[in-house]
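User: What would this chain look like folded?
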Amino acid sequence: MLTPRLIWNYEPFINKAIEAFDPEDVSIAGGAVRDTLFGKPVKDVDLYIRYVTTPLKNKFIKEHSLEKKSKDEYDETDFDVWHDPKKPDIDIIFHRGTIDNFIKSSFDCSICEVWYNFKHGLSYTENFDKGRDEKRIYIYRDRCSSHLASKHLERVLDKYTDWKWEAWNERH
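Assistant: Here's the prediction, encoded as structure tokens.
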């Protein structure tokens, strides 16, 4: 089962998020889920929380003394990234809309398009599924212009050296 192996170290904080928000609105996505599925070491966890109201989001931020990540790292309008300085290996990404639409519109490569939602379980995109079957990573060039995206892709390709990669101008 995915959950215990992935989140045992993060469970107290994740449980607080699930209590504060609807479990349907709380997911782990990207590298932590991918690496768990493929038996690779997990570097960090990105906890995605869809928020309905700003007061609820602000209350959670205040209660857990979260600090906003640098604007230089994440200059986006449809999501914002926070972290607890005492837990540097977990980021909290507040976003609007559904997790699947968020991933499809913002992730830079197919191998990261996988998530575990605390109500619905494991999900992934068609590109993730196709790439997994072929051991191929589809890289979306239109999302790789920032320094942060370049570093991310470098780490992914270093970790999955036995996979082939293919660059697409945009996500299919």
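Helices lie at 2-7, 11-20, 31-37, 54-63, 99-106, 126-134, 147-159. If you want, I can go into more detail on any region.
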